[in-house]
Amino acid sequence: MNFKDNFSYFKNNSQEIYFDSAATSIKFDKVIQAQSDYDLKIGANTHNNLFNNAYKANEMLNDTRIKIAKFIGIEDKNEIIFTSGTTHSLNQLAFGMRNYLKANDEILVTKLEHSSNLLPWMVLAQEEKLKLDYLELNENFLIDVSKIKNKVTKKTKVISFAMNSNTIAGLNDVKKIVKEIRKLNKNIIIVLDLAQSIKQNKISIKDLDVDCVAFSAHKIYGPFGLGILWARKEILEFLKPIFYGGGNNTSIGINNYKLAPIPEKFEAGTLNLSAIYAFNICLDVLEDLKIDKMIAYEEELKKYFRSKVKKIDHSKFEFYNLENDQPIVLFNLKNVNSQDFGAFLNKKYNISVRVGKHCSRLANELFKVSSTIRASFSIYNTKEDIDKFIEALKDCDNWVNEIL
């Protein structure tokens, strides 16, 4: 199967080698078409069933919740909340807990977290006089399960971490981590950031036993502007919405109001319905292509890169995660500004990579660098793309002349 046939983007950008899928994936053709189809053929808003297309909109919304619930392995579709992205979802979780958390309660994260899974908790801790602390990592920059006990106390209320980060990308053993946390304090709310993992790993929330997850459609070949928040019903019951308005109330008096039931409680205003419909179709495509095969293909690309790079003189490079199988390569050319080498890759070889701090500033402190280069592979990449990448790395001595 040629996965690339599902992406007309590359017909319009035939020379580009796109290695920035950790930032956003290229969209399936059917996703792009579906987003247009919704506006052309349905076009209506939800919250009204009195005319045909409004009825279709509501049916589509319900059907999409059902598909997402199946995709991530949960039973109750009404625990699925639509947001604008992972950032929105994690902010909703954090700031929705204001009334649940009390002064001196503790929140644990890691230093590898994306800003979207760090800053909401940090700001909440500062504003509500909570304690924010960091789980210890092992030599592979994974959560050290044996040292969780050093951080968890009776006051620990929330632990939030990524299944795998957007930098080092190593896969945390979520089941072991959750089991250890539950053993130490069964009342802790465990939040899992799946922004990177949703494409790279088959997810079953029931097996993982976490309490909340967040991810974005655009990370898994879907549309921009759509995020998913899932949380256990008992958490959604006490969680406060961070937005209020049309659609998330059932009554309003002069000085009082009544919130709508879950999930509408958290979906004030008009949802991004064309994106939701497009993600509905995206899930169909994922099922047709088989997520297991897609994951295996991406891992094979990483293994192929690893085998190839070890055959060349790569002493001038610093690789930070070469040995794991997640399809991200984080590296630097020693003694060279990462921005300059990223520009060289693009200008001479038309290779698109991400350069900088990757919205994970504390991670750079762990690596003791100011910025890094990140190449991330996906199903539309090929071994020929990897070969070109290796050729570019071998050509590193010429980077200065190429960008001047």
From TrEMBL:
Keyword rRNA processing: no
Gene3D superfamilies reported in the protein's UniProt record: Aspartate Aminotransferase, domain 1, Type I PLP-dependent aspartate aminotransferase-like (Major domain)
Cofactor: pyridoxal 5'-phosphate
Aminotransferase class V domain ranges (all copies): 17-389
SUPFAM superfamilies: PLP-dependent transferases
Any GO molecular function: cysteine desulfurase activity
Reactions that this protein is recorded to catalyse: (sulfur carrier)-H + L-cysteine = (sulfur carrier)-SH + L-alanine
Enzyme nomenclature, EC number: 2.8.1.7
Keyword Nucleotidyltransferase included in the entry's annotation: no
Keywords: Pyridoxal phosphate
InterPro entries: Aminotrans_V_dom, Aminotrans_V_PyrdxlP_BS, Cysteine_dSase, PyrdxlP-dep_Trfase, PyrdxlP-dep_Trfase_major, PyrdxlP-dep_Trfase_small
Family: Belongs to the class-V pyridoxal-phosphate-dependent aminotransferase family. Csd subfamily.
Name of the protein in question: cysteine desulfurase
Annotated source species: Spiroplasma cantharicola
